[in-house]
Design goal:
- Helices cover 85% and strands 4% of the residues.
- It is mainly α.
- Strands 1-2 form a two-stranded antiparallel ribbon.
Length: 273
């Protein structure tokens, strides 16, 4: 090989080395450039991530604050609602207490009024009773209706009760007193009849005849008149006045033919013949 060729070759070799160096330098520069961009990108990415983290944290804090405020507002609203409800309940309790007090007052007033009404009713009844004891009343005795004073009724009923009890002497005294105090009483015919029977029971036949005849003369149509005539005849028989008894019995049959006393008189007349 010639010297030129060697030189050329050496030159070629050196040129190749230069080119290779340049290429290596270019590749290295390119590599260095790529690392810087990557770091820059990574840094930017980190910054963006940090910015996003900060933004998220701020958003989270803002959301948390909003939630806290909303909860506080809701709690405050709930507290206000509870307070209003409590106030309404207390108001209702107060109204109920007032109503209960008014009800108790009305109940007491009603009880007092009922007591007063009962008291007034009792007083009215007592007054009516007193007036009834003082005022005349219509009564019916032995089929006869008449007006009688309360005292008359009490005295006659008391004397008749004594007679029915069998205390004929006391009955006589009470009936005599009654007739002396009330000679015109509607009770008088009946009083005479029971007086005569009381005297007959004590064997005071003459006085009995007197009172039976007083009844017949005073009230010949009285329910007790036929019995009074029969009683006169019985008294006459007790006094052994058979003739007088027969006449009395005959008069009885004529005067009161339809009476039970007349039937008894007929039987008595038959036995006396």
């Amino acid at each position: 090989m010639s010297r030129f060729s060697s030189a050329w070759c050496r030159a070629i070799g050196r040129g190749g080395l230069f080119v290779g160096g340049v290429l290596l330098s270019t590749a290295a520069s390119a590599a260095l450039f790529e690392d810087s961009d990557a770091r820059k990108a990574i840094l930017e990415l980190r910054q963006r991530v940090e910015a996003l983290r900060v933004e998220g944290e701020q958003a989270r804090q803002a959301l948390t604050q909003s939630i806290s405020q909303a909860a506080a507002q809701e709690a405050a609203g709930l507290s206000q609602g509870q307070l209003a409800l409590h106030q309404q309940i207390e108001l209702l309790r107060s109204e109920i207490a007032d109503l209960r007090g008014a009800h108790e007052k009305l109940v007491k007033e009603l009880a007092d009024l009922q007591l007063q009404v009962r008291s007034d009713a009792q007083a009215r009844l007592a007054l009516e009773d007193r007036l009834a004891r003082l005022e005349p009343a219509k009564v019916t005795v032995d089929g006869v209706e008449f007006m009688a004073e309360p005292v008359e009724r009490r005295e006659f009923d008391a004397a008749l009760a004594v007679f029915r009890r069998g205390d004929f002497l006391l009955a006589q005294n009470q009936l005599v007193s009654f007739l002396s105090r009330n000679p015109g009483s509607g009770y008088a015919p009946s009083a005479l009849f029971w007086l005569g029977n009381a005297q007959y029971a004590t064997r005071d036949y003459k006085e009995a005849i007197t009172n039976f005849r007083s009844l017949i003369a005073r009230a010949p149509e009285h329910l007790r008149a036929p019995e009074a005539v029969l009683s006169v005849a019985n008294c006459q028989l007790e006094l052994k006045d058979t003739k007088g008894a027969k006449k009395t019995l005959t008069d009885l049959v004529k005067a009161y033919p339809q009476s039970e006393a007349a039937a008894a008189a007929k039987q008595r007349l038959s036995s006396l013949k």
